[in-house]
Amino acid sequence: MNKTQPFRISLLLVCIALYSANCASVESPNRLRKEIDLQGHRGARGLKPENTWPAFEEAIKYKMVTLELDTVLTKDKRVVIHHDSDTNPVICQNADGTEINKTSLYELTLAELQSYDCGSKKNPNFPKQIPVPGTKLLSLEEFFERVLATEKKSKEIYEFNIETKFPDDGSAPDSLVKEHTEKLIQIIEKYKVIDRSTIQSFDLRTLSVSKFKNPKIKTSALFVPTYFQGFLMTIGLGNGYRETILSAAKDKKADIISPYFLYVTPKFVNESHNNSMLVIPWTVNTDKEMKRLVSCGVDGIISDYPDLLDSVVRKKP
Prior knowledge:
The protein is an alpha/beta fold. It is built from 11 helices and 11 strands. The strands form 2 sheets. Strands 1, 2, 3, 6, 7, 8, 9, 10 and 11 form a 9-stranded mixed β-sheet that branches. Strands 4-5 form a two-stranded antiparallel ribbon. A hairpin with a 5-residue loop joins β2 and β3. It is globular. This is Glycerophosphodiester phosphodiesterase. InterPro entries: GP_PDE_dom, PLC-like_Pdiesterase_TIM-brl. It comes from Leptospira vanthielii.
């Protein structure tokens, strides 16, 4: 997630303090899902290097229902697990410790990307994150191989929420969206995880391609508010924006609507359920907001902190 991050941390704190939609005072609607879907965002971005195997191991450690991850298509047409369509010098470096340049992933092969160390540099936005020096990026195939091997040993089964990422400026042509989504589906089919995979995207063209190629794979429509829209929602004036994204998700026949958490109110959840869509908001990193969303009747929560999500939602003593 995190498409053109709409709020700075300081503003988020103000917005949350102002947010008046207290779901706890309203009767929770019936969920379409029997158990709440706990999802580790980018594996467990708050605890280990994002979108890497150590992060996914952390999500598994805290018994997340779903592993959430991002994917980009490389120059040699491989699906790599990475959030941005450009390399990120803030969290990755060369194997010898020197800085990398910001470069489009469409200009780099999987092998070139896997030469980077994406575990030594601690993300400054996540103070609890523990570096894992020498960590390499994964292809989607490598990810499934490791998860399935883990499942065989533990007898646990996980679900997957896989996002297609494109340039934030909206410049991705239809051909790229189609190629990326189709390759993603081919890999999901190869590893026989169709029934427990979701393809999500801010670029709703992805959902259309997915529904056409394999309608058995669930799709999720992602939405983020602008700065102004987010502010209006904190003061109770954003219902029009909620109606707009509900309509857009319904038009794409999405199985799930996955908005930034400020969108979520009891009415929003009810209307989504009435249109046969699950509600799984992102990225939720405080116990107060987790509790509010649970009381709203959401079907899942995506968090950078699986440890917090586990302790708060499962209500451990």
